[in-house]
Amino acid sequence: IFSAAFLQESCCAYVIALMAVYWCTEALPLAVTALLPTLLFPVLGIMKSKEVCMQYLKDTNMLFVGGLIVAVAVEHWNLHKRIALRVLLIMGVRPALLMLGFMAVTAFLSMWISNTATTAMMVPIVQAVLDQMNNREAEALQMLMTVSGLGVSPEEAADRTRMCKGFTLCVCYAASIGGTATLTGTGPNLVLKGQMNQLFPQNGDVINFASWFGFAFPNMVLMLALAWFWLQLIFMGFNFRRTWRCGVLTSAKEAVAYRVIREEHRRLGPMCFGELSVLLLFSLLVLLWFTRDPGFMAGWATHLFNAEAEYVTDATVAIFVAVLLFIFPSKVPQLCFWKSHSTDSQASNSPCPALLTWKVVQKKLPWNIVLLLGGGFALARGSEVSGLSLWLGNQMSPLHSIPPWAIATVLCLLVATFTECTSNVATATLFLPVLASMSQSIGVNPLYVMLPCTLSASFAFMLPVATPPNAIVFSYGYLQVSDMAKVGVVMNIIGLLCVTLAINTWGRAMFHLDTFPTWANATGM
């Protein structure tokens, strides 16, 4: 006869295994699978329905919704495209600089808006530049063939193909890398934030926007630089004089590329009042996030709101700025409305639409991720209540004899491999609660394992189906699966090396990873 505790643990393990299979195979839509705890936990006697449903709209979900509403406004007003084109004009169009410019812009935008939206916006710009460069080169070759009677050499055709592959791949890789730099940049980061609050409620808000940025941004810059170097090496060769055009006048192809970017920028016209307003509100959001609780000093919320308890969080700030987007007008308000009485002026004095409407948000906001996050929090809570987390932790206690850095490296490799086959949010959701239990059982700071594994969940570089940015780039026809796999293997290695360096250097100092924190002794139970 099995005990009631054993039955609860077994039932919870069954639900997690079932959802893992469904998430990997996508037998059901990811968001629908995330709803299964609301059905199975009450039926199997693990949690009451009211308790399960409360997990689906936590503080982290509201942070995600608020941040994405601001991102939708940036995308709706085409502000991201203006920023991208302006930076490309500044960076220049020499081959190495052009690739670096595309990667830097894509990574920066992915920090604030979704990786998919960034890639979908950037790839057509890359495509337009490549088309014009190739057309110009084709015209020159046609003239050469007419004069000399020679054909296009295989080397020239291969160079053109390699350049197209390199420029398209750099966009999807930069989108995945850039999303890791901010707490709202990609789903796994928010899963970590939510799981930390769920599993370790006394953690003192150790993971917030400022602390995550301080840890992840240097790692992102390092990864981006190494990725650019690797793509240069494999697709353009490391010929310094050739790729940087040192001492060489601007070629016809480069001049054409610059004209394409400049023309795209010109079509946007001057910045309107709506774009300026969105830019100001976006800047306000970032400023409030950074200064709420910077860690090294008291923030604006420390004494004003959070003296007794943490009333104001990053989610509060995100929702505040999101609400302002529905209030601020999209055109300059006309204050002296009483001075004119003509029909035209009366028409112009009609109510001005706000910067953002709910119809736009409803269409563009990825609601499925909200359910995915909620499903992850429900799984974590069910694991605690059933005792499954404690049981898993006890089974992993023999790992105490293995050095923590070795455990973290192996787990990062496992997560990076797993995320190639399933959603990065689902990967983080399945692994992080188990890693938290393991850390407690072997006496290691949970962040020492959870931080690098969270970043590794975004290292989906090898397959077109691994992440939407990869699929978007693959659909343009320049790449084969083998191309992405060969380049992506090295990208995964680069990511693992960078994360290992980050967690053992500045990460160790920021989060005091050498010590086992007191908040890790108490769980959400």
UniProtKB/TrEMBL annotation:
Signal peptide: none annotated. Keywords: Ion transport, Membrane, Sodium, Sodium transport, Transmembrane, Transmembrane helix, Transport. Its main location: membrane. One of its GO terms (biological process) is fumarate transport. Belongs to the SLC13A/DASS transporter (TC 2.A.47) family. NADC subfamily. One of its GO terms (cellular component) is plasma membrane. One of its GO terms (molecular function) is succinate transmembrane transporter activity. The lineage of its organism: Eukaryota, Metazoa, Chordata, Craniata, Vertebrata. PANTHER family: NA(+)_CITRATE COTRANSPORTER (PTHR10283:SF109), SOLUTE CARRIER FAMILY 13 MEMBER (PTHR10283). It is a multi-pass membrane protein. The chain crosses the membrane at residues 27-47, 59-77, 83-113, 170-192, 212-235, 268-291, 311-329, 365-382, 402-435, 487-506. This is Solute carrier family 13 member 5. It holds the Pfam family Na_sulph_symp. InterPro entries: Na/sul_symport_CS, SLC13A/DASS. It is found in: Membrane.
